[in-house]
Batch of 3 targets.
Target 1
Amino acid sequence: MVRINSTLAPFSTDAFRNGEFLTVTDADVRGKWSVFFFYPADFTFVCPTELEDLADNQAAFDKLGVEIYSVSTDKHFTHKAWHDTSPAIGKIKYTMLGDPTGVISRNFGVLIEEAGLADRGTFLLDPEGKVQYIEITAGGVGRSATELLEKIQAAQYVATHPGEVCPAKWKEGGETLKPSLDLVGKI
């Protein structure tokens, strides 16, 4: 299972983005903040609501310098067919990774082996390819792009402000904490 500060494992896969097929590798991911957003399958029910939510918030992710990679065990051809037929998925501009062999899903520890599908897993990677945030939910529980954006802002703040941490419900511009002996027992 992937843990916080785990490093992105090597991979190479076919993908669909902006009307084109391309190959994406782990090397393409490094150097920028990235979200790997795993979902069970194309042409399903909760998945398009989540992927559309990400697409609707694309500008906010772009502003933070974050690349989105949605991942399912479908092939890149299936991603294109879904993109071309679903109004919700048609909004997507980010990269949709195909993972038909389950290598990427397995690398992140979200592959349901007996089903050949991925759990709903969200992973935030820093520019060095290290995992900074993990969320895994049950199949029937959708995720929120707004909540994810808040986690990204907090992770980016902590990464650029050594010695500071973000408390619960922290929002950009909010008060942070500086852990020290003087702070122990006073929160």
Target 2
Amino acid sequence: MSDPVTGFTGLPGAVAVSHLCVYDWPAADGVSGGTPHLHLTCSEAYVVTGGRGAVQTLTASGYEVTPLVPGTVAWFTPGTIHRLVNEDDLRITVLMQNNGLPEAGDAVLTLPPEYLNDPETYAAATVIPADVSEEERARVARARRDLALEGYRALRAADGPEPLAAFHRAAAALVRPRLAEWRERWRRGAEAAASATGDQLDRLERGDTSHLGDAVVRAEQPSAYGKFGMCGRLDVYKGTV
């Protein structure tokens, strides 16, 4: 159901929200945490609600570590490879630009190059089956995390910018078949939200307040709890994914 005031569904500005408990699985380097990946069109923000940890980031400008403690708000733009580190029960509310795009494939894990050659090979290495036990889903999620860490460590150790640029090219090629679908999601979401604001400004300029009479209030509880995500267990909302 679309909002009569804005004409689109979901949270204000077509932002997606989820609650994240970051994985506490240790990796080969002794660090516990999530799966390194990047987004191609979506900025992402963390509002830290509990525990302690960090986010490791890798961009063309280099490698950084941002500490995360309760009250921290951290965010990054598309193209930022990020790895969440769980030092002590790290819990985060995640805000994601372009409602629904990350779940439609706007995230590419830092798998080794041989897994990035085509969408079928990539999907076989990253999909978590829905028709298996929770124990098996956890095993698959952890295995893909560890595989992505192999590629991530190689990118961090690379000499010069070309390996990272090559990963960017491979990621873009993987998602190219889905761009028409993404564009339609963007039009129904973020573009519609921005257009609605422009329309409201035009109305107010004319002294027309009729849209204020169409105000609505909504509330939702999570539609799913404890889903295996890239970075941890997720509580998600139906209207924002």
Target 3
Amino acid sequence: MRSENTHRLAAAPETDWDAQAAAFDDEPDHGLRDPEVRLAWADRLRTWLPGHPADVLDLGCGTGSLSLLAVEQGHRVTGVDRSPAMAERARAKLAGRPATILCGDAVAPPVGQRRFDVVLVRHVLWALPDPAAALRHWRQLLRPGGRFVLVEGVWGTLGPVGIPAARLTALLEPLSRDVRVERLSDDSLLWGKDVDDERYAVVATV
């Protein structure tokens, strides 16, 4: 994983992600090139997503690695990323598959309301200026009975960044009828190394 100065998790919102796109997949949990890391994410995703073919909205999809796993599990995916270079790499990765990749803002993605069964977001929500407002808007994109799948955390020691699980679950309570937190810090295969910070997934049904 990259150092805190360059890793997407700890980068400033104004980071030039077009410039970062070429090397983005070099990180184990980004490109999922290591078979064990890829399998670890695929196994987790299978438990978070519906057991039947569903419409998944992957916001801040980056180069499309999680989108690809979702498609391989039988889902239809719409990915959105604000970086044209990231979106282009995602399109190439998902070419010929039931997926659409759009360039746009994750906070207000260029999609219609109540179209999706899942809103999937990894390491994006913490960096938004108003995560509560983003969640309220994303809630409108879900069909009745849909779900949020949010992978987040808190990284760093001297100047930690991120969103604690307790805060995220509190934000979701008015929007969801069931909220489940799954700790991810102790699964080194997901990250390609041992980690000692807070990493987790929240699955919230609306």
